[in-house]
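Consider this one:
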Amino acid sequence: MRWWSVANFVSNAGTWMQLTVQNLLVLQITGSAAATGLSMSVQAAPALFMSLLGGAAVDRWPLKLTAAVSQALLGAVAFTTAVLVALDRLDMTSLMVLAAVTGAIATVDGPACALLGNDLVPVADVPSAIGVGALVHNAGRLAGTALAGVTVGLLGTPAAYAVNGLSFLFVASVIPFLRPAYDKAGRAGTDHHAPAQPRDRRDDMTVREGLAFFARRPRLVALAAVTGISAVFGRNYGLTLAVLVTGPLAGGAGAFGSVSTVLAVGGILGAVLGARLRKPSVRLVGTLAAAGGLLQVAAGLSPSLAVLLVLVLPMAVVESVSDTAGTAVLQTDPPAHLRGRVLGVWSSIGTVWGLGGPPALGLLMETAGARGALVTGGLLIAGAIGAGFVVRARRVPEPVALPTKPGDVMEQEALGAAA
Protein backbone atom coordinates (compact mmCIF):
# COMPACT_ATOMS: atom_id res chain seq x y z
CA MET A 1 0.00 0.00 0.00
CA ARG A 2 2.91 2.36 0.66
CA TRP A 3 4.33 1.65 -2.79
CA TRP A 4 0.91 2.16 -4.34
CA SER A 5 0.46 5.48 -2.52
CA VAL A 6 3.88 6.72 -3.69
CA ALA A 7 3.11 5.65 -7.26
CA ASN A 8 -0.26 7.41 -7.18
CA PHE A 9 1.27 10.58 -5.78
CA VAL A 10 3.77 10.64 -8.65
CA SER A 11 1.03 9.91 -11.18
CA ASN A 12 -1.36 12.55 -9.79
CA ALA A 13 1.39 15.17 -9.77
CA GLY A 14 2.18 14.36 -13.41
CA THR A 15 -1.48 14.42 -14.41
CA TRP A 16 -2.14 17.81 -12.84
CA MET A 17 1.06 19.14 -14.37
CA GLN A 18 -0.17 18.07 -17.81
CA LEU A 19 -3.69 19.45 -17.25
CA THR A 20 -2.27 22.82 -16.22
CA VAL A 21 0.09 22.95 -19.19
CA GLN A 22 -2.61 21.71 -21.58
CA ASN A 23 -4.87 24.64 -20.73
CA LEU A 24 -2.01 27.05 -21.39
CA LEU A 25 -1.17 25.22 -24.61
CA VAL A 26 -4.72 25.50 -25.94
CA LEU A 27 -4.72 29.22 -25.15
CA GLN A 28 -1.39 29.53 -26.97
CA ILE A 29 -2.68 27.70 -30.06
CA THR A 30 -6.15 29.30 -30.28
CA GLY A 31 -6.14 32.34 -28.01
CA SER A 32 -9.64 31.31 -26.97
CA ALA A 33 -10.84 30.57 -23.45
CA ALA A 34 -13.85 28.78 -24.96
CA ALA A 35 -11.51 26.38 -26.76
CA THR A 36 -9.84 25.61 -23.44
CA GLY A 37 -13.17 24.63 -21.94
CA LEU A 38 -13.96 22.57 -25.03
CA SER A 39 -10.75 20.55 -24.68
CA MET A 40 -11.67 19.72 -21.07
CA SER A 41 -15.19 18.68 -22.12
CA VAL A 42 -13.84 16.48 -24.93
CA GLN A 43 -11.62 14.65 -22.43
CA ALA A 44 -14.53 14.19 -20.00
CA ALA A 45 -17.13 13.21 -22.63
CA PRO A 46 -16.06 9.54 -23.07
CA ALA A 47 -16.92 8.91 -19.43
CA LEU A 48 -20.54 9.76 -20.23
CA PHE A 49 -20.86 7.12 -22.95
CA MET A 50 -18.15 4.53 -22.24
CA SER A 51 -17.92 4.22 -18.44
CA LEU A 52 -20.43 1.36 -18.37
CA LEU A 53 -18.34 -0.59 -20.87
CA GLY A 54 -15.15 0.29 -19.01
CA GLY A 55 -16.59 -1.00 -15.74
CA ALA A 56 -17.71 -4.23 -17.42
CA ALA A 57 -14.20 -4.68 -18.81
CA VAL A 58 -12.72 -4.28 -15.32
CA ASP A 59 -15.07 -6.97 -13.98
CA ARG A 60 -14.16 -9.32 -16.83
CA TRP A 61 -10.38 -8.88 -17.14
CA PRO A 62 -7.58 -9.58 -14.61
CA LEU A 63 -7.37 -6.52 -12.40
CA LYS A 64 -3.60 -6.02 -12.15
CA LEU A 65 -3.09 -6.57 -15.88
CA THR A 66 -5.92 -4.17 -16.74
CA ALA A 67 -4.52 -1.42 -14.50
CA ALA A 68 -0.95 -1.88 -15.78
CA VAL A 69 -1.97 -1.82 -19.46
CA SER A 70 -4.22 1.20 -19.04
CA GLN A 71 -1.44 3.11 -17.27
CA ALA A 72 1.02 2.21 -20.02
CA LEU A 73 -1.45 3.39 -22.69
CA LEU A 74 -1.96 6.70 -20.89
CA GLY A 75 1.83 7.07 -20.80
CA ALA A 76 2.01 6.41 -24.55
CA VAL A 77 -0.55 9.18 -25.22
CA ALA A 78 1.44 11.61 -23.06
CA PHE A 79 4.71 10.78 -24.88
CA THR A 80 2.98 11.16 -28.27
CA THR A 81 1.75 14.60 -27.27
CA ALA A 82 5.23 15.57 -26.05
CA VAL A 83 6.77 14.60 -29.41
CA LEU A 84 4.14 16.51 -31.39
CA VAL A 85 4.66 19.62 -29.26
CA ALA A 86 8.45 19.36 -29.56
CA LEU A 87 8.18 19.09 -33.36
CA ASP A 88 5.63 21.93 -33.49
CA ARG A 89 3.14 19.59 -35.17
CA LEU A 90 0.36 19.74 -32.59
CA ASP A 91 -2.76 21.54 -33.82
CA MET A 92 -6.18 21.83 -32.22
CA THR A 93 -7.60 18.81 -34.06
CA SER A 94 -4.86 16.42 -32.98
CA LEU A 95 -4.99 17.77 -29.42
CA MET A 96 -8.74 17.10 -29.25
CA VAL A 97 -8.24 13.57 -30.59
CA LEU A 98 -5.55 12.86 -28.00
CA ALA A 99 -7.77 14.29 -25.24
CA ALA A 100 -10.65 12.03 -26.32
CA VAL A 101 -8.35 8.97 -26.39
CA THR A 102 -7.13 9.85 -22.89
CA GLY A 103 -10.72 10.09 -21.65
CA ALA A 104 -11.62 6.74 -23.24
CA ILE A 105 -8.68 4.94 -21.59
CA ALA A 106 -9.55 6.56 -18.27
CA THR A 107 -12.97 4.86 -18.29
CA VAL A 108 -11.11 1.59 -17.72
CA ASP A 109 -8.15 2.92 -15.76
CA GLY A 110 -10.21 4.72 -13.09
CA PRO A 111 -12.21 1.75 -11.72
CA ALA A 112 -9.30 -0.66 -12.23
CA CYS A 113 -6.89 1.41 -10.13
CA ALA A 114 -9.54 2.15 -7.48
CA LEU A 115 -10.38 -1.53 -6.97
CA LEU A 116 -6.73 -2.56 -7.10
CA GLY A 117 -5.91 -0.14 -4.30
CA ASN A 118 -8.72 -1.60 -2.18
CA ASP A 119 -7.30 -5.11 -2.61
CA LEU A 120 -4.08 -4.07 -0.91
CA VAL A 121 -5.66 -3.74 2.55
CA PRO A 122 -8.00 -5.92 4.64
CA VAL A 123 -11.72 -5.33 4.15
CA ALA A 124 -12.05 -3.40 7.41
CA ASP A 125 -9.38 -0.93 6.29
CA VAL A 126 -10.91 -0.07 2.88
CA PRO A 127 -12.42 3.27 4.10
CA SER A 128 -9.00 4.19 5.47
CA ALA A 129 -7.34 3.26 2.18
CA ILE A 130 -9.83 5.46 0.29
CA GLY A 131 -9.02 8.32 2.67
CA VAL A 132 -5.31 7.85 2.02
CA GLY A 133 -6.07 7.90 -1.71
CA ALA A 134 -7.92 11.21 -1.33
CA LEU A 135 -4.99 12.62 0.61
CA VAL A 136 -2.55 11.48 -2.09
CA HIS A 137 -4.80 12.99 -4.78
CA ASN A 138 -4.91 16.41 -3.10
CA ALA A 139 -1.18 16.41 -2.40
CA GLY A 140 -0.44 15.41 -5.99
CA ARG A 141 -2.73 18.15 -7.27
CA LEU A 142 -0.90 20.81 -5.27
CA ALA A 143 2.53 19.49 -6.30
CA GLY A 144 1.64 19.08 -9.97
CA THR A 145 0.09 22.53 -10.31
CA ALA A 146 3.13 24.12 -8.65
CA LEU A 147 5.64 22.13 -10.73
CA ALA A 148 3.92 22.88 -14.05
CA GLY A 149 5.16 26.46 -14.24
CA VAL A 150 8.67 25.52 -13.10
CA THR A 151 8.94 22.68 -15.62
CA VAL A 152 7.71 24.76 -18.55
CA GLY A 153 10.00 27.64 -17.56
CA LEU A 154 13.12 25.50 -17.31
CA LEU A 155 12.56 22.68 -19.83
CA GLY A 156 9.67 23.76 -22.05
CA THR A 157 6.12 22.51 -22.62
CA PRO A 158 7.08 19.10 -24.10
CA ALA A 159 8.90 18.24 -20.87
CA ALA A 160 5.69 18.48 -18.84
CA TYR A 161 4.01 15.89 -21.08
CA ALA A 162 7.10 13.68 -21.00
CA VAL A 163 7.23 13.82 -17.20
CA ASN A 164 3.58 12.79 -17.07
CA GLY A 165 4.34 9.89 -19.41
CA LEU A 166 7.14 8.75 -17.11
CA SER A 167 4.79 8.95 -14.10
CA PHE A 168 2.35 6.56 -15.80
CA LEU A 169 5.16 4.12 -16.63
CA PHE A 170 6.30 4.27 -13.00
CA VAL A 171 2.84 3.19 -11.84
CA ALA A 172 2.72 0.42 -14.48
CA SER A 173 6.09 -0.88 -13.31
CA VAL A 174 4.99 -0.97 -9.65
CA ILE A 175 1.70 -2.84 -10.23
CA PRO A 176 3.21 -6.33 -10.94
CA PHE A 177 4.92 -6.29 -7.53
CA LEU A 178 1.81 -5.41 -5.50
CA ARG A 179 0.50 -8.17 -3.25
CA PRO A 180 -3.13 -8.24 -2.08
CA ALA A 181 -3.81 -8.26 1.65
CA TYR A 182 -5.71 -11.13 3.22
CA ASP A 183 -8.22 -11.04 6.03
CA LYS A 184 -8.69 -13.72 8.66
CA ALA A 185 -10.95 -15.69 6.34
CA GLY A 186 -8.25 -15.79 3.68
CA ARG A 187 -10.00 -13.40 1.30
CA ALA A 188 -7.90 -10.95 -0.67
CA GLY A 189 -8.52 -7.31 0.11
CA THR A 190 -12.09 -6.46 -0.88
CA ASP A 191 -12.39 -10.02 -2.16
CA HIS A 192 -12.31 -8.78 -5.76
CA HIS A 193 -10.02 -11.67 -6.71
CA ALA A 194 -12.50 -14.17 -5.29
CA PRO A 195 -15.86 -13.07 -6.72
CA ALA A 196 -19.04 -14.77 -5.66
CA GLN A 197 -19.89 -15.58 -9.28
CA PRO A 198 -17.63 -17.23 -11.88
CA ARG A 199 -15.88 -14.62 -13.98
CA ASP A 200 -16.20 -16.66 -17.16
CA ARG A 201 -20.04 -16.58 -17.23
CA ARG A 202 -21.01 -14.03 -19.87
CA ASP A 203 -24.49 -13.51 -18.41
CA ASP A 204 -22.78 -12.31 -15.21
CA MET A 205 -20.70 -9.74 -17.08
CA THR A 206 -23.37 -7.72 -18.86
CA VAL A 207 -23.64 -3.96 -18.52
CA ARG A 208 -27.37 -4.37 -17.88
CA GLU A 209 -26.70 -6.32 -14.69
CA GLY A 210 -24.65 -3.45 -13.27
CA LEU A 211 -27.38 -0.94 -14.11
CA ALA A 212 -30.07 -3.17 -12.62
CA PHE A 213 -28.12 -3.69 -9.40
CA PHE A 214 -27.56 0.06 -8.99
CA ALA A 215 -31.23 0.85 -9.62
CA ARG A 216 -32.39 -1.81 -7.14
CA ARG A 217 -30.15 -0.59 -4.30
CA PRO A 218 -31.95 2.24 -2.44
CA ARG A 219 -28.78 3.26 -0.60
CA LEU A 220 -26.88 3.69 -3.89
CA VAL A 221 -29.75 5.65 -5.42
CA ALA A 222 -29.87 7.82 -2.30
CA LEU A 223 -26.10 8.32 -2.47
CA ALA A 224 -26.43 9.40 -6.10
CA ALA A 225 -29.20 11.87 -5.19
CA VAL A 226 -27.23 13.40 -2.30
CA THR A 227 -24.06 13.71 -4.36
CA GLY A 228 -25.97 15.04 -7.36
CA ILE A 229 -27.74 17.91 -5.59
CA SER A 230 -24.48 18.79 -3.82
CA ALA A 231 -22.59 18.78 -7.13
CA VAL A 232 -25.12 21.02 -8.91
CA PHE A 233 -25.86 23.59 -6.20
CA GLY A 234 -22.62 23.46 -4.21
CA ARG A 235 -19.00 22.38 -4.47
CA ASN A 236 -18.27 24.47 -7.58
CA TYR A 237 -16.38 26.87 -5.36
CA GLY A 238 -13.90 27.75 -8.08
CA LEU A 239 -16.82 29.51 -9.78
CA THR A 240 -19.04 30.79 -6.96
CA LEU A 241 -16.33 31.92 -4.57
CA ALA A 242 -14.33 33.52 -7.37
CA VAL A 243 -17.31 35.72 -8.26
CA LEU A 244 -18.05 36.42 -4.58
CA VAL A 245 -14.46 37.44 -3.78
CA THR A 246 -13.91 39.59 -6.86
CA GLY A 247 -17.44 41.05 -6.77
CA PRO A 248 -19.29 41.79 -3.51
CA LEU A 249 -16.18 41.40 -1.33
CA ALA A 250 -14.10 43.62 -3.69
CA GLY A 251 -11.03 41.35 -3.61
CA GLY A 252 -8.57 40.64 -6.38
CA ALA A 253 -6.84 37.62 -7.83
CA GLY A 254 -4.55 37.46 -4.80
CA ALA A 255 -7.52 37.27 -2.44
CA PHE A 256 -9.07 34.43 -4.42
CA GLY A 257 -5.68 32.71 -4.40
CA SER A 258 -5.79 32.79 -0.60
CA VAL A 259 -9.29 31.29 -0.64
CA SER A 260 -8.13 28.54 -3.03
CA THR A 261 -5.18 27.74 -0.76
CA VAL A 262 -7.45 27.40 2.27
CA LEU A 263 -9.76 25.14 0.23
CA ALA A 264 -6.79 22.92 -0.67
CA VAL A 265 -5.62 22.75 2.95
CA GLY A 266 -9.15 21.88 4.08
CA GLY A 267 -9.31 19.13 1.47
CA ILE A 268 -6.12 17.58 2.83
CA LEU A 269 -7.33 17.82 6.45
CA GLY A 270 -10.64 16.25 5.42
CA ALA A 271 -8.82 13.40 3.69
CA VAL A 272 -6.84 12.72 6.88
CA LEU A 273 -10.06 12.66 8.93
CA GLY A 274 -11.81 10.54 6.30
CA ALA A 275 -9.02 7.97 6.51
CA ARG A 276 -10.11 7.32 10.11
CA LEU A 277 -13.66 6.31 9.14
CA ARG A 278 -14.46 2.71 10.03
CA LYS A 279 -18.14 2.36 9.09
CA PRO A 280 -19.13 5.01 6.54
CA SER A 281 -22.80 5.18 5.59
CA VAL A 282 -25.14 7.08 3.29
CA ARG A 283 -26.65 8.75 6.36
CA LEU A 284 -23.21 10.11 7.26
CA VAL A 285 -22.70 11.35 3.69
CA GLY A 286 -26.08 13.09 3.76
CA THR A 287 -25.47 14.65 7.15
CA LEU A 288 -22.10 16.02 6.06
CA ALA A 289 -23.53 17.29 2.77
CA ALA A 290 -26.34 19.09 4.62
CA ALA A 291 -23.80 20.63 7.00
CA GLY A 292 -21.77 21.74 3.99
CA GLY A 293 -24.88 23.35 2.53
CA LEU A 294 -25.48 25.34 5.72
CA LEU A 295 -21.82 26.43 5.77
CA GLN A 296 -22.26 27.52 2.15
CA VAL A 297 -25.21 29.69 3.22
CA ALA A 298 -23.04 31.32 5.87
CA ALA A 299 -20.27 31.86 3.30
CA GLY A 300 -22.71 33.57 0.97
CA LEU A 301 -23.61 35.99 3.76
CA SER A 302 -19.97 36.71 4.68
CA PRO A 303 -19.50 40.44 5.29
CA SER A 304 -15.74 40.35 4.67
CA LEU A 305 -12.93 38.28 3.20
CA ALA A 306 -11.64 37.42 6.70
CA VAL A 307 -14.99 35.86 7.67
CA LEU A 308 -15.09 33.95 4.37
CA LEU A 309 -11.62 32.50 4.99
CA VAL A 310 -12.77 31.26 8.40
CA LEU A 311 -15.78 29.50 6.83
CA VAL A 312 -13.98 28.08 3.80
CA LEU A 313 -11.80 25.73 5.84
CA PRO A 314 -14.66 23.73 7.46
CA MET A 315 -16.50 23.77 4.12
CA ALA A 316 -13.56 22.01 2.45
CA VAL A 317 -13.09 19.60 5.38
CA VAL A 318 -16.76 18.56 5.36
CA GLU A 319 -16.74 18.11 1.58
CA SER A 320 -13.60 15.96 1.67
CA VAL A 321 -14.85 13.69 4.50
CA SER A 322 -18.22 13.34 2.75
CA ASP A 323 -16.50 12.36 -0.51
CA THR A 324 -14.37 9.77 1.28
CA ALA A 325 -17.39 8.26 3.04
CA GLY A 326 -19.41 8.17 -0.19
CA THR A 327 -16.60 6.54 -2.14
CA ALA A 328 -16.19 3.90 0.57
CA VAL A 329 -19.91 3.05 0.42
CA LEU A 330 -19.83 2.92 -3.37
CA GLN A 331 -16.80 0.62 -3.55
CA THR A 332 -17.79 -1.77 -0.76
CA ASP A 333 -21.58 -2.10 -1.10
CA PRO A 334 -21.77 -4.10 -4.39
CA PRO A 335 -20.65 -7.74 -4.55
CA ALA A 336 -17.11 -8.16 -5.84
CA HIS A 337 -18.04 -9.31 -9.34
CA LEU A 338 -20.20 -6.18 -9.91
CA ARG A 339 -17.98 -3.44 -8.50
CA GLY A 340 -16.40 -2.43 -11.80
CA ARG A 341 -19.78 -1.96 -13.45
CA VAL A 342 -21.21 -0.09 -10.47
CA LEU A 343 -18.22 2.28 -10.63
CA GLY A 344 -18.91 2.63 -14.35
CA VAL A 345 -22.52 3.63 -13.66
CA TRP A 346 -21.30 6.11 -11.06
CA SER A 347 -18.77 7.62 -13.46
CA SER A 348 -21.47 8.19 -16.09
CA ILE A 349 -23.74 9.86 -13.51
CA GLY A 350 -20.87 11.98 -12.22
CA THR A 351 -20.05 13.14 -15.75
CA VAL A 352 -23.63 14.36 -16.17
CA TRP A 353 -23.26 16.39 -12.97
CA GLY A 354 -19.86 17.68 -14.05
CA LEU A 355 -21.12 18.84 -17.44
CA GLY A 356 -24.51 20.15 -16.30
CA GLY A 357 -23.69 21.61 -12.91
CA PRO A 358 -21.58 24.66 -13.85
CA PRO A 359 -24.05 25.97 -16.50
CA ALA A 360 -26.99 25.55 -14.10
CA LEU A 361 -25.07 27.28 -11.33
CA GLY A 362 -23.98 30.02 -13.72
CA LEU A 363 -27.62 30.65 -14.64
CA LEU A 364 -28.52 30.86 -10.96
CA MET A 365 -25.71 33.35 -10.40
CA GLU A 366 -26.93 35.45 -13.32
CA THR A 367 -30.36 35.54 -11.71
CA ALA A 368 -29.56 35.85 -8.01
CA GLY A 369 -25.95 37.03 -7.93
CA ALA A 370 -23.02 35.35 -6.19
CA ARG A 371 -24.45 35.71 -2.67
CA GLY A 372 -27.91 34.60 -3.76
CA ALA A 373 -26.54 31.56 -5.59
CA LEU A 374 -24.55 30.43 -2.56
CA VAL A 375 -27.43 30.98 -0.14
CA THR A 376 -30.09 29.46 -2.40
CA GLY A 377 -27.90 26.50 -3.33
CA GLY A 378 -26.99 25.80 0.28
CA LEU A 379 -30.62 25.93 1.41
CA LEU A 380 -31.68 23.62 -1.43
CA ILE A 381 -29.00 21.09 -0.46
CA ALA A 382 -29.80 21.12 3.26
CA GLY A 383 -33.56 21.21 2.67
CA ALA A 384 -33.62 18.35 0.16
CA ILE A 385 -31.43 16.10 2.32
CA GLY A 386 -33.46 16.94 5.43
CA ALA A 387 -36.67 16.09 3.58
CA GLY A 388 -35.13 12.81 2.49
CA PHE A 389 -34.30 11.91 6.07
CA VAL A 390 -37.87 12.67 7.15
CA VAL A 391 -39.39 10.56 4.35
CA ARG A 392 -37.07 7.66 5.13
CA ALA A 393 -37.89 7.82 8.85
CA ARG A 394 -41.60 7.61 8.09
CA ARG A 395 -41.08 4.59 5.85
CA VAL A 396 -39.28 2.53 8.50
CA PRO A 397 -41.72 -0.23 9.49
CA GLU A 398 -42.51 -0.74 13.15
CA PRO A 399 -41.61 -4.17 14.54
CA VAL A 400 -44.66 -6.39 14.88
CA ALA A 401 -44.94 -8.92 17.70
CA LEU A 402 -46.20 -12.17 16.19
CA PRO A 403 -48.24 -14.56 18.33
CA THR A 404 -46.40 -17.77 19.13
CA LYS A 405 -47.40 -21.21 20.28
CA PRO A 406 -45.52 -24.25 21.50
CA GLY A 407 -43.40 -25.79 18.76
CA ASP A 408 -42.68 -22.52 16.90
CA VAL A 409 -39.10 -22.23 15.59
CA MET A 410 -38.97 -18.48 14.95
CA GLU A 411 -35.64 -18.03 16.68
CA GLN A 412 -33.70 -20.67 14.83
CA GLU A 413 -30.56 -19.31 13.28
CA ALA A 414 -31.38 -20.64 9.81
CA LEU A 415 -34.77 -18.96 9.77
CA GLY A 416 -33.25 -15.74 11.01
CA ALA A 417 -30.71 -15.78 8.19
CA ALA A 418 -33.42 -16.54 5.63
CA ALA A 419 -35.53 -13.64 6.88
Residues 183-187, 190-203, 408-419 have pLDDT under 50 and may be disordered.
